[in-house]
Amino acid sequence: MSKTSNPGNPGTSDEPAVTAADTGKGAGANKGAGAGAEGAAGLTARLDQAQPYALGLFRIVAGLLFACHGAASLFGVLGGSKGGGTVDMGTWPGWYAAVIQLVAGGLVLLGLGTRSAAFLASGSMAYAYFKVHQPEGLFPLQNGGELSALFCWVFLLLVFTGPGALALDRLFGTGTRDGADATAREGKAAEHGEREEQGTPVTA
């Protein structure tokens, strides 16, 4: 109920009165917004905590697929090379490319010497794209080089990110910096999640 303006009575005004119901609605809206923000922050913390494992799974799948290409070309398994056979030993560049695919792909799969193996794999795919596919057309869809381009960028990404979780690099200490960075991220994400649950302010 609002008060009406009365020039003869200075105690009245045109502004509506604030009721207890209005105050309750505002408090409820603020509480709901706060709960939503806390939920989003908690989800972000959990995703950050799972990031090394997602990267590790990404690395394993990429390495497995790459190694399968090499095995198919060298040994005729999984359908063999193009035409169903194998590449002749020592032929350039097919045989050498297959060896790189098998060895580098296996190392990436295991997470052993990940950055070096990924760099070699990325370089081999860049060579394959520009030497074999690029002369056939400007774009990957035209020259059939989509797979070479994709593998090139996938392995180049791993050069910068490192192996992630589930890697022998971390077990043997050859990826110490990767492991330390990942452990620090996991610890910070876990601490963030605990503070959010306890309602403690989180500082950067």
Automatic annotation (TrEMBL):
Cellular component GO terms held in the UniProt record: plasma membrane
Bias type Basic and acidic residues, positions: 182-198
Bias type Polar residues, positions: 1-12
Region (Disordered): 1-25, 182-204
Membrane topology field: Multi-pass membrane protein
Compartments where found: Cell membrane
A Pfam entry, by short name: DoxX
Record's keyword terms, sorted: Cell membrane, Membrane, Transmembrane, Transmembrane helix
Transmembrane annotation, as ranges: 57-80, 92-112, 147-168
InterPro entries: DoxX, DoxX-like_oxidoreductase
UniProt keyword Repeat present: no
Family that this chain belongs to: Belongs to the DoxX family.
This protein's name: DoxX family protein
